[in-house]
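Incident review: delayed structure delivery

Summary: a single-chain prediction request sat in the queue longer than the usual turnaround. Root cause was a stuck worker, restarted by the on-call engineer. No data loss occurred. The affected request and its eventual output are reproduced below so the record is complete for anyone auditing the incident later.

Affected input:
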Amino acid sequence: MVRPALYFMISAGMLLILAPILLYSIQLWKERRIERIKGYSERFNHSAALRLERKAQEEHKAYADHVSEWRKTGTS
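Output delivered after worker restart:
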């Protein structure tokens, strides 16, 4: 009769000790995951911005070449 109560008290005590540690580690894992995802997002946005800027520069150069050619020849 004493053993089941003792086992229950030991397991309840271990749960009381380990539950906050487990909850805190889960919270840290979620925060690190969110930061990692933000980092991916920032890197992706930066590379996308660079691609768009490069594309705009190429389009501007193509348009400038077209205009200069048009001015030289007088035709489109």
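Verification: DSSP finds one helix and no strands in the chain.
Action items: add queue-age alerting; document worker restart procedure.
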